Amino acid sequence: MIEVVNLTKAYKKGTAVDHINFYIEPGEIVGLLGPNGAGKSTTIAMLSTLIPPTDGDVLLQQKSVLKDPSSLRKVLGVVPQEIALYGDLTAKENLNFFGNLYKMPKTQLKNRVEVVLQQIGLEQESKKLVKHYSGGMKRRLNIGVALLHEPQYLIMDEPTVGIDPQSRNHILETVKKLNEHSNTAIIYTSHYMEEVEYLCDRIYIMDQGRIIASGTKEEIKAILSSENTIVVKVENYSNDFMNDLLKQPFLSNINSSEGEVAFTVAKGMNFLPTLFSLCEHHRVLLKSFQVEEPTLEDVFLHLTGRALRN
Ligand SMILES: Nc1ncnc2c1ncn2[C@@H]1O[C@H](COP(=O)(O)OP(=O)(O)OP(=O)(O)O)[C@@H](O)[C@H]1O
């Protein structure tokens, strides 16, 4: 198990990471979800012993890795946000180059290169120069480099930023398979709520250097269990209708766009009579309404008053 204990990074301008605690057990996929600037990359840099913390520690099997970074590096692979590859080499040559850099034995490296190329779905393209690769293929190879030494734990820092949807899906599937077939534990950072929701067993939500919520998806969503979001489709609605809705004490977070009005209401509150009478009064045609499950985005909005993506 890897544990992060009171991990902190303070810069002159402010504290990027502020006494955070979390853990990951073998075989888990754990999500670190937060908006830009929340402190995710700084956390990962400290966790992978690239930068020293101002305070706190990282423990592997209850032993400090700050005192013995090599113990962690043996079992940890890191996929950085930036692509770190040589464009004038092929995929195979890149993998061999990094394998040699890590001083992997020759026969082991040869086998691992073949396995990794298959895992990242680049066997057919392994002899192409990387400079001719698409952004998504480069990202996949970036992941491959981190997998060469068969790490037990893999950290992925926003691995799908700036790539097309097809490559994004490919990466998400690669992550799932890696976890299912090789039992690799994965720390997945992202500001895409859907990715984290799809992949992760447990989630930590970060904001302004702190962890503001943690648990399984269900546990985190339960923070909003006392409310329901209602989405109503209407025609001919006016400002007066909206103003009257805003005056209702039991409705909150009222938003409208393109024929849809959304609001939250306390669970169990019978809002329908009021809604019907307001529609009738303002001659608004009520076409449909539905009760929506809260999303992690809703929880973030509830906890911080801001949207996850800006
Ligand atoms: N070397 C540094 N010196 C000073 N401040 C820094 C440094 N590195 C990061 N920060 C600040 O720390 C905060 C957290 O940054 P960090 O990159 O960890 O966030 P993030 O959640 O990874 O965001 P992103 O998704 O944009 O990478 C930001 O306010 C950033 O400006």
Automatic annotation (TrEMBL):
<dbReference type="InterPro" id="IPR027417">
    <property type="entry name" value="P-loop_NTPase"/>
</dbReference>
<feature type="domain" description="ABC transporter">
    <location>
        <begin position="2"/>
        <end position="233"/>
    </location>
</feature>
<dbReference type="Pfam" id="PF13732">
    <property type="entry name" value="DrrA1-3_C"/>
</dbReference>
<dbReference type="Pfam" id="PF00005">
    <property type="entry name" value="ABC_tran"/>
</dbReference>
<dbReference type="GO" id="GO:0016887">
    <property type="term" value="F:ATP hydrolysis activity"/>
</dbReference>
<dbReference type="InterPro" id="IPR003593">
    <property type="entry name" value="AAA+_ATPase"/>
</dbReference>
<keyword id="KW-0813">Transport</keyword>
<dbReference type="GO" id="GO:0005524">
    <property type="term" value="F:ATP binding"/>
</dbReference>
<keyword id="KW-0067">ATP-binding</keyword>
<protein>
    <submittedName>
        <fullName>ABC-2 type transport system ATP-binding protein</fullName>
    </submittedName>
</protein>
<dbReference type="InterPro" id="IPR017871">
    <property type="entry name" value="ABC_transporter-like_CS"/>
</dbReference>
<dbReference type="InterPro" id="IPR025302">
    <property type="entry name" value="DrrA1/2-like_C"/>
</dbReference>
<dbReference type="InterPro" id="IPR003439">
    <property type="entry name" value="ABC_transporter-like_ATP-bd"/>
</dbReference>
<keyword id="KW-0547">Nucleotide-binding</keyword>
